[in-house]
């Protein structure tokens, strides 16, 4: 089962799975997904927590040894398996496949991974994890969906904004959800509950967007000249070589 990170609370409300795999490079989405799983697990009685960071030369058999016993005072355990590289190696791949096929009793397992390429997602070890539990996709929010994402976050703070204000705010936080949440928190501190105007946002929010060079061609294809100019200015200000970027766009258009 696959769920988007922002839909995870709905899944958790229906009941805990035995295994969660949080995969993706969006820091805020991954952080919030992990926190939500941990909080729900604690509320369900998973009071003992063990963390295994699997990188370099590690003993994968420790996973099975740790799952055999609980402490005297814990009824259930939360086991976290962190694989920062996303590459468990031959021994790790075998261990994960075996682990997923026989999850330990009274244990909720949380596996965290960076974004994986298509080939890795087709591997036997990842497929075994996906079959055994819930895969939570911690992905960047696309620009088209960002105003709605911001509106939901504002609503949690008791704030509302019209479409123009949401669009203005989206332009200034695109590609940087962690900073976007910080700006929303700032608005909640500075303003009373109720409607937020564009003027309020202009006074309070700094431009923290992070845009990539490969978005230039997509924006050009879409015919959005204003956004194209803004991305180009943002990349130039961050130190990118403008001639090289324009060459990249020209090559894409010729193709």
Structural class: alpha/beta
- H and E string: EHEHEHEHEHHEHEHHEHHHH
The helicity comes to 40-55%
Strand content: 5-15%
Would you identify the CATH architecture of the largest domain?
A: 3-Layer(aba) Sandwich
- Separation, N- and C-terminal Cα atoms: 37 Å
- Major β-sheet annotation: 6 strands, parallel
Overall, the morphology is: globular
Strand order of the largest sheet: 1-6-2-5-4-3
User: CATH H-level name of the largest domain... which superfamily?
Assistant: P-loop containing nucleotide triphosphate hydrolases
Low-confidence stretches: none
Number of strands: 8
Q: Which CATH top level class of the largest domain fits?
A: Alpha Beta
Structure explained in plain terms:
This protein has 255 residues and is of the alpha/beta class. It folds into three domains: 2-137, P-loop containing nucleotide triphosphate hydrolases (Rossmann fold); 143-210, Helicase, Ruva Protein, domain 3 (Orthogonal Bundle); 211-255, no CATH class. Helices cover 51% and strands 15% of the residues. The chain is built from 13 helices and eight strands. The chain has helices spanning 8-13, 27-43, 62-66, 89-101, 118-121, 124-132, 146-156, 163-173, 177-190, 198-204, 215-222, 225-237, 242-254; strands at residues 2-4, 19-23, 48-53, 77-82, 107-113, 134-137, 159-161, 194-196. The strands form two sheets. It has a six-stranded parallel sheet with strand order 1-6-2-5-4-3, sandwiched between helices. A two-stranded parallel ribbon has the order 7-8. Helix 4 (89-101) packs parallel to helix 6 (124-132), helix 7 crosses helix 8 (163-173) and helix 11 (215-222) crosses helix 13 (242-254). The longest helix has 17 residues, at 27-43. The radius of gyration is 22 Å and the shape is globular. The model has no long low-confidence stretch (mean pLDDT 84).
């Amino acid at each position: 089962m696959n769920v988007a990170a922002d839909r995870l609370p709905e899944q958790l409300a229906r009941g805990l799975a035995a295994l969660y795999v949080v995969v993706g490079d969006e820091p805020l989405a991954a952080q919030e997904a992990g926190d939500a799983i941990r909080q729900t697990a604690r509320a369900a009685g998973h009071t003992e927590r063990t963390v295994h960071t699997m990188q370099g030369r590690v003993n994968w058999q420790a996973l099975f040894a740790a799952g055999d016993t609980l402490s005297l005072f814990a009824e259930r355990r939360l086991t976290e398996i962190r694989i920062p590289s996303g590459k468990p190696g031959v021994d790790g791949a075998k261990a994960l496949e075996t682990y997923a096929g026989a999850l330990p009793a009274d244990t909720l397992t949380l596996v965290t991974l960076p974004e994986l390429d298509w080939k890795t997602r087709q591997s036997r070890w990842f497929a075994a994890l996906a079959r055994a539990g819930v895969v939570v996709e911690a992905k960047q929010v696309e620009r088209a969906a960002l105003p709605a994402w911001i509106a939901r976050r504002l609503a949690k703070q008791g704030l509302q904004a019209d479409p123009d204000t949401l669009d203005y705010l989206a332009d200034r936080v695109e590609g940087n959800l962690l900073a976007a949440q910080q700006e929303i928190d700032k608005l909640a501190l500075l303003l009373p509950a109720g409607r937020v105007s564009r003027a309020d946002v202009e006074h309070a929010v700094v431009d923290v967007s992070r845009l990539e060079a490969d978005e230039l061609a997509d924006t050009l294809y879409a015919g959005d000249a204003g956004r194209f100019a803004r991305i180009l200015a943002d990349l130039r200000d961050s130190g990118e070589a403008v001639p090289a970027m324009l060459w990249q766009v020209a090559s894409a258009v010729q193709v």
